């Protein structure tokens, strides 16, 4: 049940980000393990590392929101256990970097969270209803904790000390 992960880097800002393929393989592998999802062996996942302008255009086209966002997921649909293509995850550098700085966490940890979040969308998780959001956030916390990454929903240190 190991997916094939294809990564496209669409902006120079990501060039200095160390080994995004290894991070994606690690996070997605852990998410598969923790969620218990069954996927077809060799199912494909495309990850696009882009800038805010790129993701804003996708957000405008697919969600009718005229602004950048941190991550978008595009599930391919069909039965997850047998589909040969699970879908696409798109992550914007500027938004991810800004959020990481505001939360006082390493960019790599935040990107790991966005990868887990994006992959959970590909396998059917969502956060529209409160109960679904809680389940998704719990899964993200568990996956990241097993990778040694702090709770992504915890308040930044500066806010916690107030």
Percent helix, as a range, is 40-55%
What characteristic shape results from the CA principal axes? globular
Poorly predicted regions: none
Give the assembly state of these chains: single chain
How can the largest sheet be summarized? Answer: 4 strands, mixed
The total count of helices amounts to 6
Tell me the number of structural domains. 1
CATH class equals Alpha Beta
Q: In the CATH classification, which architecture applies?
A: 3-Layer(aba) Sandwich
Distance between the termini: 46 Å
* Mean pLDDT, all residues: 94
Q: What's the CATH H-level homologous superfamily?
A: Metalloproteases ("zincins"), catalytic domain
Strand proportion, as a percent range, falls in 15-25%
Characteristics:
four-stranded mixed β-sheet; Collagenase (Catalytic Domain); alpha/beta; 162 residues
Task: Write structural notes for this entry.
With 162 residues, the protein is of the alpha/beta class. It has a single domain (4-153), classed as Metalloproteases ("zincins"), catalytic domain (Collagenase (Catalytic Domain), 3-Layer(aba) Sandwich), CATH 3.40.390. Helix content is 46%, strand content 16%. It contains six helices and four strands, in the order βαβαββαααα. A four-stranded mixed sheet has the order 1-2-4-3, with helices on both faces. α1 (20-35) packs across α4 (107-122). The longest helix is centred in the last third of the chain and has 17 residues, at 130-146. The protein is globular. The N and C termini lie far apart (46 Å). The mean pLDDT is 94.
């Amino acid at each position: 049940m190991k997916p094939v992960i294809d990564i496209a880097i669409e902006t120079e800002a990501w060039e200095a980000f160390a080994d995004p393929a290894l991070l994606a393989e690690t996070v997605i592998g852990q998410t598969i393990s923790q969620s218990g999802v069954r996927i077809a062996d060799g199912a494909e996942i495309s990850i696009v590392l882009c800038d805010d302008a790129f993701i804003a255009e996708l957000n405008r086209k697919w969600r009718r929101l005229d602004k950048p966002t941190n991550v978008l997921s595009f599930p391919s649909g069909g039965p997850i256990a047998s589909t040969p293509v699970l879908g696409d995850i798109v992550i914007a550098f500027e938004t991810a970097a800004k959020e990481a700085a505001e939360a006082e966490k390493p960019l790599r940890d935040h990107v790991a969270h966005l990868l887990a979040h994006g992959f959970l969308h590909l396998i059917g998780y969502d956060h529209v209803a409160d109960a679904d959001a809680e389940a998704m956030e719990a899964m993200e916390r568990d996956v990241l904790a097993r990778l040694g990454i702090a709770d992504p929903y915890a308040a930044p240190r500066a806010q916690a000390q107030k």
